[in-house]
Sequence to fold (696 residues):
Amino acid sequence: MSDETTPESEPVVPEAAVELPVMDISAPPEVVEHRLGQFGVHGSPDVSGYGGLVTTVVLPGASERPYGGYFDEVADDLQAALGADFNDAIEKIVVDRGQLTIHVKREHLVSVCQALRDDPMLRFEMSLGCSGVHWPGDAGRELHVVYHLRSLTHNRFVTLETTCPDSDPHVPSATSVYPTNDWHEREAFDFFGVIFDGHPYLTRIQMPDDWPGHPQRKDYPLGGIPVEYKGAVTPPPDERRWYS
Amino acid sequence: MSDTTYTSTADESEDIQSDPYRTSEGDTVYNVQGNDWDTVLAPPEGEKDRLIVNMGPQHPSTHGVLRLIVELDGEAVESVRAAIGYLHTGIEKNMEYRTWTQGSTFVTRMDYVAGLHNELVYALGVEKLLGIEDQITDRANVIRVMMSELSRISSHMVAIATGGMELGALTGMTIGFRDREFVLDLFESITGVRMNHAYIRPGGISHDLPKGIEKDIVAAIKILRERASDVHNLLVDNAIWLGRTQGVGYLDLAGCMALGITGPILRSTGLPWDLRKADPYCGFENYEFDIPTATTCDVYGRFLIRLAEIEQSINIVEQCLDKLEPGPVFIEDKKIAWPARLTIGPDGQGNSPEHIKEIMGTSMEALIHHFKLVTEGFQVPQGQVYAAVESAKGELGMHLVSDGGTRPYRAHMRDPSFTNLQSIAAMTEGGLLSDVVAAISSIDPVMGGVDR
Fold:
């Protein structure tokens, strides 16, 4: 094994004497969409009589301690590594379906990645790339970028999530810490229009260079044509009736 | 909740896409799409003349529609840049417009050489979102493991076959494709098709193994074991093969970590990292198998690893046959389980006559249930998950987001071919042009997975 992935012979033990600030990262569930109707029908009129009912789509809020498993250790180690910046950098920590997601404010993304990679207690040395999610109803936080990190040293897995508004779609690039994100960030730029500041060659990767728009945003139509077979016409997929 | 503290380092007054020949950092972009050859051909101040060759996207040795922009000084490679996207079909976007069940049909077309891995990781992701991992039946899990290992055998055989062809060992190709045919025949008997199966579905598998298939599997294993020596005899000690592959396409552990490389390339650095051991799924912890490694970090090491993994996978398939107990292959929960049972009739595969009789003749509720589940689909609670399996090429990840509806809100496949292909520059720059071909074949990218 090379030096980069092996912990130093004497692991750096976080100084217990230093009083860490109290972790203050509570956040309510995030409302991303309001929907009308009980049965979630789209593409044809809701004749159920329940069309006026409002349901909300929420993403989970901050989880309560203890998180369980190694998640508490990761949170504590990250707090020790970031020190006073922790409450500033971390929006919330969510444990959902057995997975730990750390929501980071975008201006701190690179320093959090650096800490996660380099701290011997954390050592998330491999990034599995990033993925974008577009929530048009999440005002001021429309674009989410999700990074998946794996620690081979400790056999652990963590998800990082950061957001940026549609009006200012800038997120710092994590390529300086994890070079593998080069193509992944180009893909997220190509499909969602997130501009990764500091990326060495932020050009389109899947779509042609002169393609207008960013196809995986929710406001970008799927496209398609109706298909006729023996007199019956099937509309394109995005015009068919569907349920949410 | 807009944060105003973050200030972008980019100059706001300047649209980074306004000049197609400049990157966001101000460097030159070589599109080579026509009318811009002058920018490419003129050597920069103080630099010597160089030759830029477009290898692909229609080139027999680039593993599909991969285009490499190779900068040459004689035969020495100065720089390599991969251009991808020629097979982009918008699978991820399309999945947002189909039900969760229909997603299987889409993901299997990503890395089509090992499509069952894609179906498996997608099914695991949806099951994680639904919180029903524990309800998957034992038989379904054993069949999933067996199919995924058969898929690994088939994928590695393609890797060795096409790699052989690209390096001039054409018999290696005929041997590889000949033996892969036995696996594809099994797939045809079990799933009904040779590729693009949509066999592993959220909740289980689409239908049980056909009667008497165990005999066919045993026979295929026997033939595969006997014929494994063919590739060994042809290539393992072949002086030309050694000359073309040893010390070529070097990438060490630090490089693999930085570039996110997994699979045989990572294991060729000596690190026995395999998700089947590190983070077992579908009961892989109950199987006995080794993780082959090499310490040479080169094309030859990856070739030996693939050969050894085929043997290990055959062993796992054999263990699966011992573990197969009769039982259901789909989840009990009637709100998720596919209502219809498939059988093969005189006119091909279709819904079983008993099921048709039940829903059309005896139970109105069963008919409504069938109709609702098939047309509308089941709902998946809000949230996001990441599921991962060890595919033939490395870590295959699935990032799934649900908004609580009957369709994926976002589905993203972390395909190992996509990530591993990034290493082509690190592996080949400074070497010879012919080594680029060897390096690509050792990465074994499948462009369907790279471009999605």
